[in-house]
């Protein structure tokens, strides 16, 4: 798979089943995450791999956090906790801002998001399916404690990993009209439509 093929064909998996990625595949994904663009090389990110029985630790924390909210129906709590075990492996992505750094927080978080996308792309390149998902109750003490989050750290979700099940088909992904998302600055200071990109690039051509 070449680089553009990898970028254009990565999808968010609908359902992930065993087998999960091997240690070697996980190591490549984590290494790819560390190549994210990173202003002043702060490494404003870190990752926590959760798999096997350890997923129950996370599920229990989500349950405890949901119960602490109060008033949530039992099925709602169970559904939230079940997210910890719905894929063979997950990697939590943590924005780990460097205090006092002269790089704005938004830029540090952007680097962490790029690292998460690198995880997904490195998974895809190795034939591992992925889904970047929101973490249930990410600000709760219980969930923060599982990932050892300190004051300046925040969860950007987690990347679920495994084998794509064909039980639920992937929804179609329409190409985006580039004129809807991009324009070009003219020498006169105007924002002009990108007429040279009038045709959507067919992502399924890759
Ligand atoms: C920070 C972040 C959080 C996300 N959380 C969820 C989620 O909780 N549930 C979900 O189904 N998809 C989640 N997604 C995935 C998007 O829904 C998905 O990327 C989008 O539908 C486009 O699908 P594609 O990645 O296959 O192109 C999340 C994506 C990002 C970047």
TrEMBL record:
It comes from the Bacteria. The keyword Cytoplasm does not apply. It is an enzyme of class 1 (oxidoreductase). Residues 18-162 form the Nitroreductase domain. This is Putative NAD(P)H nitroreductase. Its cofactor is FMN. It comes from Parafrankia soli. FMN binds at residues 10-12, 39, 132-134. InterPro entries: NAD(P)H_nitroreductase, Nitroreductase, Nitroreductase-like, YdjA-like. Keywords: Flavoprotein, FMN, NAD, NADP, Oxidoreductase. Its EC number is 1.-.-.-. Belongs to the nitroreductase family. One of its GO terms (molecular function) is oxidoreductase activity. Binds 1 FMN per subunit.
